[in-house]
Amino acid sequence: MFKKVNNIFLVYYSSFTTKSGSNIHILELLNNLKKYTDVVLFAPGQKGIERVFSGVKYVPVINNKYLVQPSYEIMLSVYLLYACLKNRPEVLYLRQNSFPFLPIALCRIFKIPSIVEVNGLVMDELSVSPDSKSFAYRVFSYLALRSEKFNYTYCDRIVSVTDKLKDELVRLYSVPAEKVIVINNGANTDIFKPMDQKQVRDRLKLDNSKKYVCFVGHLAAWQGVEFLIYAAPYILEKSPDVRFLVVGDGVMKDKLIEIASKTGVLEKFTFTGRVPYESVPEYINAADVCVAPFIKDRNSKIGLSALKTYEYLACGKPIVASDIAGVKDLLDLSGGGISVPPEIPGDLANAVVELISDQNIRNAMGERGRKYVIENHSWDEVARKILDICYEII
Fold it and tell me: 355 with 382, same domain?
């Protein structure tokens, strides 16, 4: 059981104008830490944000895509300096994103213990970004790489979401292995839970006579949704009553629709676009099988602790996912799904058909998966692990 930690500052660099996975992560962390201690979350106060989250200090920024981050870094230093003088935190917890320097620098000056959470590496993001050749992106990347080196060197602990990411941090930045603690992502098991399938299908106006395969997430290149589309003809050949739900939005959406059209399966797919976070569990529960067909690039190097996989399992749904470190480990430990080689549509199709064809297997996997997530990967459990680290360094 963790010891008492009196107050924590969370520092975040992304905008709350969208419901991204990183936003869900930080808000779940905020809400669950608040059960046990006083927490203030510092975040950019951009236009269009619904300021409905308690415990958030919105820092004013210049609403220009090139100036948001530099202006936030400057104003954040003022807000943090004032907050530290008024009510010095016992720990500052920073989610590494963009190019933060000043929060950890202030911690050094005020001798405040600090933790940096790492979910990925800048150089890997560059390899799959369509903007990677632009001048602005190169400047951003240069600053972000320097920020990573500075923060990982001078913080007290690093939280990595996968074992392989920890290995890369140790290798690339000469970080002592004992400084890096692995804490996987989690799921809100109160929101993501089994629901009556017929009722949610009726609400979503889905055909109850069909079987549904569902993907949830940001439509980015590294998600590999195109391989689900390429697998669709093989799945439909064996199971003609299958339909596909792609829940989410992103830069790849138009390209994916084009691929589905060229493959001749567009009428079998529903691309929902962005849906409210509260509606995501309904789409998952409407499905018979959920998929996470991640590609090898970017993912195999550092592993994955993908929110969607925990949320699928929390809803009691079996998963077919790429054999990527972190994801495969989760499926093996939970018994909640099947891992397949990434980027091979035939193998993906065979696994989906295997589950679609046997409700008993689906039910058994779903029950095992939910039980495992409740016991090991609720956001409450994640918060407790972080509080243990906080107590070690204060």
Answer: no
E strand intervals along 123-257 = 157-160, 180-182, 211-216, 242-247
Domain of 97 in residue numbering reads as 7-186+378-393
The reported pTM is: 0.88
Distances (CA, A) of 6 to 10, 11, 91, 392: 13, 17, 9, 13
Classify 368 as helix, strand or coil: helix
pLDDT in tens, 293-306: 999 877 777 888 88
201 with 302, same domain? yes
- CA distances to 10, 117, 242, 319 from 96, in Å: 11, 6, 41, 29
Domain annotation covers residue 192: no
The tens digit of pLDDT for each residue in 319-349 reads 999 999 999 999 999 999 999 999 999 999 9
The total number of structural domains in the chain stands at 2
**218 in the same domain as 151:** no
CATH code: domain of residue 56? 3.40.50.2000
Q: Helix (H, G, I), strand (E, B), or coil: what is residue 19? A: coil
CA distances from 57 to 26, 71, 72, 91, 204 (A): 14, 16, 12, 17, 36
Interacting residues of 262 by C-beta distance below 8 A, sequence separation 6+: none
Q: Are residues 131 and 30 in the same domain?
A: yes
Rounded Cα distance between 380 and 391, Å, is 17
